[in-house]
Structure to design on (660 residues):
């Protein structure tokens, strides 16, 4: 067993062990090791998003394995690229951890990144990063994508008459979060090593909370189908639908029976479907003329409602109050 | 006086005040507000680098104003883009701060970013970001650049016979750091509000440590002049020259008289020139045929030595031991 810490081996040795675990990427012209990387942007544009995960606010080391953290950091960024209709080409990763962290934990993190990329966005590479130290784990990922000549699908394009669909799951991550919180409370605040893993083995909601698989390939497919507006559901269906409604100056009218059918199929509560975030489903509006498939790029498509003239989000005609997640007031 | 904290006003109001302070950018197609941004990459490639500043390891709130932090975060990233020979097009900024932070401090941060960009890379925009909370200030910037059809200048291109030059200052930031540390020790560990500002007013080295002006426009100019290898001196001349030497399989032979003349001109010690980082000068190797100018894009150029067959870094023929900065062992 290799119990060396970062402080034991130093930065060069950490990089020597960390970098080879990461995928190179099909679009990479100059990878890690120089002042900057160079990445192909074949159509003369690139899509970019950034997302940070901080210990405490966004992650708990008694819940997530290092593999989970790498996977989840990839998922949340890849989902935002997909939500524009783009194909992810590359990531850069800044990672700061305590000096006492084991080198093998960083290797597991790199493997989680690599496995997440392989599962969600094969061909995407890690082209650079920044390793540092912090008292609490800090993960900042920036992701890039290629629109392949197509227009980006914004939040603002929904039109009255469009159908409102979700691709992927809703409410499972929040349900899993609830179970992890309950188990932690029962354990006196902190889970024992291995406990989260055992919970996840028996419970898909916990698995999805710890290592969500975003329907990344569905993003460009939905764009090609004519998606008029799209976003990654990271804060909950009601809140994220309200963003589409506001940006599009339209109403998103959700159908209660469809929401309940999805909740039943996924084994979660209606409230979880409406307000749970972080499954990283894609919320998309599609023109009425389209024959809706049941799956897009392997992920389930569920019709949830329709775009109407008006504003806000309704459920069976009644306004739905979005439950905001405000990091400054949480 | 507006003493509202982030927790008082919430995320939407913070964004409403923060975003308008940031430059849009000439290359921006879709800016902040959607899942991701879209940026022009006219020659079908983009350059990307990421750099994180963490309270404690990289920044101190008793030294740096919020304006300084924004400026410095821009400078360190823009310098890495310039060191590839590219023109910066855009940045994304992830910022996590305590909830008790004043909204006006975030406004000062945005103004520092904007002012740093205006001074170093006019036309560059802030296209996205991520605001969150953390016990200690966390700033993760990712920057993008455009090579305008030229080859990237890597660390690996130095050839025997090339001249070794620095563009910008060396050793001033480290000298300023030393003075801030001394003043802090004298003050019992922490500087009083306003003390760092007063030190900086009288001392260019302190100013450069807190808010360095990287010679960003010199990067593409040096590339166009035929620069064979280039990097941003972030860890000190000796260590960064050793990186060029290793990547290029060559020796960087520094001239003691030239180093001493530069030290005298800048009013710092030889050791500071050799081993001080964070001025963000560009270290460049240029073919012997070039008539060296005294300035490049407004920044002073100093010839410091020559590339020879061999390995490592020498000063007047004697090996120079690079003094490593290892974040995991510091």
């Amino acid at each position: 067993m290799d119990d060396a810490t970062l402080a034991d081996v130093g930065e060069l040795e950490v990089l020597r062990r960390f970098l080879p675990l990461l995928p190179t990427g099909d679009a990479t012209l100059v990878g890690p090791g120089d002042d900057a990387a160079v990445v192909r942007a074949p159509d003369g544009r690139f899509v970019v998003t950034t997302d940070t995960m901080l210990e405490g606010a966004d992650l708990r080391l008694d819940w997530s394995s290092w593999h989970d953290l790498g996977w989840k950091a990839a998922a949340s960024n890849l989902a935002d690229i997909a939500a524009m209709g783009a194909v992810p080409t590359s990531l850069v990763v800044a990672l700061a951890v305590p000096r006492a962290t084991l080198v093998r934990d960083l290797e597991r993190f790199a493997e989680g990144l690599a496995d997440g990329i392989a599962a969600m966005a094969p061909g995407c590479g890690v082209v650079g990063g920044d390793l540092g130290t912090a008292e609490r784990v800090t993960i900042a990922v920036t992701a890039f994508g290629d629109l392949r000549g197509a227009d980006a699908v914004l939040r603002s394009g929904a039109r009255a008459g469009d159908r409102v669909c979700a691709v992927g799951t809703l409410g499972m991550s929040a349900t899993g979060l609830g179970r992890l919180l309950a188990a932690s409370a029962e354990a006196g605040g902190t889970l024992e090593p291995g406990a989260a893993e055992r919970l996840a083995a028996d419970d898909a909601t916990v698995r999805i909370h710890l290592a969500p698989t975003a329907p990344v390939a569905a993003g460009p497919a939905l764009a090609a189908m004519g998606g008029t507006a799209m976003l990654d559901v990271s804060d909950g269906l009601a809140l994220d639908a309200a963003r589409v409604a506001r940006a599009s100056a339209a109403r998103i009218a959700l159908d209660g029976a469809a929401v309940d059918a999805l909740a039943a199929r996924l084994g979660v509560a209606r409230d979880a479907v409406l307000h749970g975030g972080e499954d990283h489903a894609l919320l998309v509006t599609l023109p009425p003329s389209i024959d809706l498939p049941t799956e897009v790029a392997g992920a389930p498509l569920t019709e949830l409602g329709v775009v109407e003239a008006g504003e806000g989000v309704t459920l069976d005609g009644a306004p739905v109050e979005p439950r905001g997640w405000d990091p400054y007031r949480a």
Observations:
- Chain B has a mean pLDDT of 96.
- The domain at 163-319 of chain B is CATH 3.90.650.10 (Phosphoribosyl-aminoimidazole Synthetase; Chain A, domain 2).
- Chain B has two domains: 6-146, 163-319.
- The first strand of chain B starts at residue 28 and ends at 30.
